[in-house]
């Protein structure tokens, strides 16, 4: 029989993937939530995400496997009304934009302000993937001055494994923050002893 539990924090991590429309959020989300050593897809068909999709996976971050929810948010501002609910209890934000699209470079700053700063998340709770699908490795990509102090990782379609490594490192840090009772999620502003 299930043991009755006290009001403890849920065991998992909630990660919200945001950024301008067609920046590559769904592409990156599918990749980071997959358990297979898949690579980014060829050929590619774009379908706008309506509202939000939630992908569930488990990751070994030390100790028992950690359940991870990846919330892939549609980039259209039509769903803006849902954003506060989407951000509720989030432990981290993955910001994805296409650095070869001028509009997306400046928009990425606004996404950071809304989803990270306005939610009182620390900058460490945000990783940025600048996704230029067909860029040559080593190409210097454009970054908005508002987010250049963050961990900005340049990726192309050849960089699937780099995304996985960076995401795992990001999750480990998010788990450490959560376990120590700080930096977002249900632990925000609370003191756990
Ligand atoms: N996986 C993949 N992505 C590509 C390819 N070619 C282009 N892309 C990029 O992927 C982008 C859109 O993909 P999505 O991941 O669906 O974009 P999104 O950010 O989820 O878009 P919304 O859901 O509308 O907010 C395209 O606009 C291209 O920049 C390709 O061959 N494979
Ligand atoms: Mg999408």
Automatic annotation (TrEMBL):
* Organism per entry: Pelagomonas calceolata
- According to UniProt, the name of this protein is Uncharacterized protein
Q: Which Pfam families match?
A: Roc
């Amino acid at each position: 029989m299930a043991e009755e539990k006290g009001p403890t924090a849920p065991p998992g991590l909630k990660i919200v993937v945001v950024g301008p429309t067609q920046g590559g959020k769904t592409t990156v989300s599918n990749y980071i939530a997959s358990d297979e050593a898949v690579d980014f897809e060829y050929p590619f068909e774009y379908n706008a995400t309506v509202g939000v999709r939630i992908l569930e996976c488990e990751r070994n971050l030390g100790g028992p496997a950690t359940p991870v929810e990846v919330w892939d948010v549609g980039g259209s501002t039509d769903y803006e009304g849902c954003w506060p609910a989407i951000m509720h209890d989030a432990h981290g934000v993955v910001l994805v934009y296409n650095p070869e699209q001028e509009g997306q470079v400046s928009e990425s700053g606004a996404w950071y302000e809304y989803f990270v700063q306005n939610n009182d998340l620390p900058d460490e709770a945000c990783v940025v993937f600048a996704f230029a699908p067909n860029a040559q490795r080593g190409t210097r990509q454009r970054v908005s001055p508002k987010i250049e102090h963050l961990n900005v990782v340049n990726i192309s379609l050849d960089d699937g494994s780099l995304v996985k490594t960076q995401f795992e490192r990001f999750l480990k840090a998010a788990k450490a923050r959560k376990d120590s009772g700080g930096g977002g999620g249900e632990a925000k502003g609370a003191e756990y002893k």
